[in-house]
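Board notes (copied after class):
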Amino acid sequence: MTNLSNAWPSLPNEERASERDFGIVACGALALHIDVIVKQLHLDVSIYPLSPLFHNRPEKIAEEVDQLLTEIAPKHLKRAVAYAECGTYGALDNILEKHQVARLSGDHCYDVFAGQNRIQGLMAENAGTYFFTDYLVKSFQRSVMVELGLDRYPGLRDDYFKNYSRVIWLAQEPNAELEIAAEHAAELIGLPLEVIVVGTDGLASQIIRLVSE
């Protein structure tokens, strides 16, 4: 089993992990946001990111989280997991129970950023909603086009996205460059784009909860 945490770009101060009390195993799509949050709040936390590409392979998440939680156990008095349920169908929660650690609440990172009630409301309004986060906007070519084979077989686009009717970008830190990238990504999958600025307060409050438990 590959330890993809070593393959993902290192976060600052990772070399001082053994000095820190709290270790968080994090989805790579959230890890840099979490790094900013823990520095702003002066939290004594080390972050261990796993590849964000596991969002396309959710059946692998629980196994990889299990391995990394085991690996960092000797280094930290407390640990937590910065994943939501993320399509693991209970497998991740079984691993968390085994290690007696907590995770982010919600079904996916959209709940974390925007709040579960708000996401449910958007889906009730239009069940054909496809969500972007800042990470997905930045990595769309790799995370979606390449991973789904659309760079090689563009004709598959309508098969993958025929049941979607809009894209909502849940923007954490929007800027002109990301806006252009989001518009381009939406065009690639043939869907109109809407933008809702959600910031990172939802993620920050959940990180505070994890560290405080």
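Comment from the instructor: The chain has two domains: 14-104, 110-197. The chain has ten helices and six strands.
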